[in-house]
Amino acid sequence: MSDLSRLPVQIGTLLAPDFLIEINNQDVTTQFRERLIELKLEDKRGFTADLLNISLDDTDGQLALPPRGGIIKLFIGWKGQELLKKGEYTIDTVTHSGTPDKLSITASSIDYRGRMNVRREASYHETTLEAVVKQVAERQRLRPVVAEKFKHIAIKHIDQTQETDSAFITRLASLYGAVAVIKMASLLFFEPGGAVTASGKPVPPLSLARHDGNAHNFSIADRGAYTGVVARWLDTKDTQPKQVTLQRKSKGQSNTAGQQGDNKSQTAAATDPETYLMGSPHNVLVLPSIYKNKEDAVSAAKAKWQELQRSVATFSLTLANGRADLIPEMPVKVSGFKSVIDAQPWLIESVEHRISSSGYTNKLYLEAVTERIEYEVIEE
């Protein structure tokens, strides 16, 4: 076995990464530890499957291929500290390559071979959003956890037509401005920025200073800074579609005006993240769909508005010392960067956990939280 592929025990270091792995309830940690090349977990937001990749040295040919469809339980952290459970993953790809011989295991948090990938015909009538989420969750043998905000929203009628449950619940979340996630055998349905654990408890905010990381990247694109959303619906009594506009409420001059010579506006833009992220005052997005009624159009416009405000700016940060407690939708406050970045509230969109010969690191992908930016509804 090649020494280069082993996870080293660094003499004199205070912290060393640690993990525990079970496959079908059998502990394989000891066997994997001396052969580990890399362990990478991509923990993602929404209904996108989390991915676990494990690469192992098999130059001596003694590794047995793991069972397809086997269940991996993963715990990660640091030696001498409690290891945190990071979920259960279904093995869907096994690759053996060489030379030198290497075994690669890919596992997913969602078993796409099972019921989740079945297209269904279903109708939900005179019910609530919580009841619909519960019905889908129970069908998938998951425990439903629905945020209080969404529990009692009335649903007159909605159809699931040749849709998989994953596609349907994603559409439902998008329609009502929610996030749907599968974690720890639970279907979580909550507001963006209102992350909860699998037991339904709120996730506490995280504070990170620049010295906690060793690389960062901030990006903002004016072309995506929409100031309004237009949604249309078709009234059965009228052949012409009607439309509703969600438009940003004016708050003085935009940063565009400031850049044209208004020193006061320039100062505000430099210190107020809301002003800096505002963008052009007349950049409006028209949704392509024609909705059944005004209520659906307004809900879709609100959900799209929230999505657009979160995606105006992105920020990635690499942590030299990984943290197993980081999860998507966790609110983050940063310091030590540019004033606009520090003043802006952030959310973790996705987080990568990586254990290799370099140690245990995280890469965080953050997006802006702009909940303070208000809008008004204009019906035409």
From TrEMBL:
<protein>
    <submittedName>
        <fullName>Phage late control D family protein</fullName>
    </submittedName>
</protein>
<feature type="region of interest" description="Disordered">
    <location>
        <begin position="240"/>
        <end position="268"/>
    </location>
</feature>
<dbReference type="InterPro" id="IPR052726">
    <property type="entry name" value="Phage_Baseplate_Hub"/>
</dbReference>
<dbReference type="Pfam" id="PF05954">
    <property type="entry name" value="Phage_GPD"/>
</dbReference>
<feature type="compositionally biased region" description="Polar residues">
    <location>
        <begin position="241"/>
        <end position="268"/>
    </location>
</feature>
